[in-house]
Design goal:
Elements: E1 2-6, E2 10-17, E3 28-36, H1 38-48, E4 53-59, H2 61-73, E5 77-78, E6 81-82, E7 88-95, E8 101-104, H3 113-124, E9 131-135, H4 146-156, E10 160-164, H5 167-173, E11 180-181, H6 185-192, H7 199-212, E12 216-220, E13 226-229, E14 234-238, H8 250-263, H9 268-283, H10 293-299, E15 304-307
Parallel strand pairs: 1-4, 1-9, 2-7, 4-5, 4-6, 9-10, 10-11, 11-12
Antiparallel strand pairs: 2-3, 7-8, 12-13, 13-14, 14-15
């Protein structure tokens, strides 16, 4: 079974207005609510592509129940830990006239030690865990090394552990040697402490991580596509150019595509192919909306996969 962990989920409200006008009333043209958070996005995309996963993490209050209800209605299996605080709400505000987009992200509730302990022990008891995706920001009251403890819980269960984080959280968590990390180029640069402007520099940074004991590194590069690196081989994957509506959730969709095909026993080329197609399909959708399966199917045969020779 694939499990995803989102410690700081959010109820995402996407609001469309004609144009923002200072000191005047602005009417809402449309409003949509989505269950948000990086791990939750992974579970949503896996479900869209016909797979099964279980979304875990913290929820609280009315907005937490609404978030869970949205997931249940979308066919996503949930196993959340209830907290006393209120699940945060993020605002994605888009101007129809200019197509400019503003993302207002809330900090989220503070997590009590007992609540964190409850979730951790539930993870340790998951004997059917084959894949564990750990991703997203941390809520207040949670130390950055918590992801390391969750990685160890996954490894004790024999799971393939995927980590998608940034900054201090990523730097501390890689010391616990997840199976795969999914940074973008800038997150990878911050991790290794130097600018990465060329493909050889990115590959060299990946090799340093393989030397530490991390088997897979999946690097997203926006319109330049993805790089999948192992100690023995490296590939680049690139989807055709598309009209980008929003990049929100594109990286999470790539993680979902990679993990889903890996769980189906596909070779690494096909894992990378689906990762490229799902990430690109999500970039074609507005706001926090995720990929449409029919667009993924159209993109799959058009994704170019090439091995990077030393």
């Amino acid at each position: 079974m694939i499990y995803t962990v989102t410690l700081n989920p959010a109820l995402d409200r996407t609001i469309l207005v004609e144009r923002l006008v200072e000191e005047d009333t602005v009417r809402i043209l449309s409003e949509t609510a989505y269950a948000g958070g990086k791990g939750i996005d992974v579970s949503r995309v896996i479900r869209k592509l016909g797979g099964t996963s279980i979304a875990m993490g913290f929820i609280g209050g009315y907005d937490g129940l609404k978030l869970e209800g949205l997931l249940i209605n979308a066919g996503v299996i949930t196993d959340f830990t209830r907290i006393t605080g209120e699940t945060r709400t993020n605002i994605v505000l888009k101007e129809e006239e200019t197509e400019r987009q503003y993302v207002i992200s809330a900090a989220g509730p503070e997590i009590a030690a007992a609540e964190l302990g409850t979730l951790y022990n539930r993870l340790l008891d998951l004997r059917d865990m084959e894949y564990l995706v750990v991703s997203g920001s941390l809520p207040r009251g949670v130390n950055p090394n918590v992801y390391g403890q969750i990685i160890l819980a996954g490894k004790r269960n024999g799971a393939f552990v995927m980590l998608d984080a940034d900054g201090r959280t990523l730097k501390e968590s890689v010391e616990y040697l997840p199976t795969c990390i999914k940074p973008n180029r800038f997150e990878l640069a911050r991790l290794v402490g130097r600018d990465l402007t060329s493909e050889p520099e990115i590959l060299d940074a990946c090799d340093r991580l393989h030397e530490k004991g991390i088997p897979f590194v999946l690097v997203s590069r926006g319109k330049d596509g993805l790089i999948l690196s192992t100690a023995e081989q490296k590939w680049r994957g690139k989807a055709p150019a598309v009209s980008v509506a929003s990049t929100v959730g594109a990286g999470d969709s790539s993680v979902a595509g990679f993990i889903l095909n890996h769980s189906r026993g596909k070779d690494l080329n096909e894992c990378l192919r689906l990762a490229c197609a799902t990430g690109t399909a999500t970039a074609m959708t507005p706001g926090t909306e995720l990929c449409h399966p029919e667009e993924v199917e159209k993109l799959l045969p058009k994704v170019e996969i090439s091995e990077i020779k030393p």
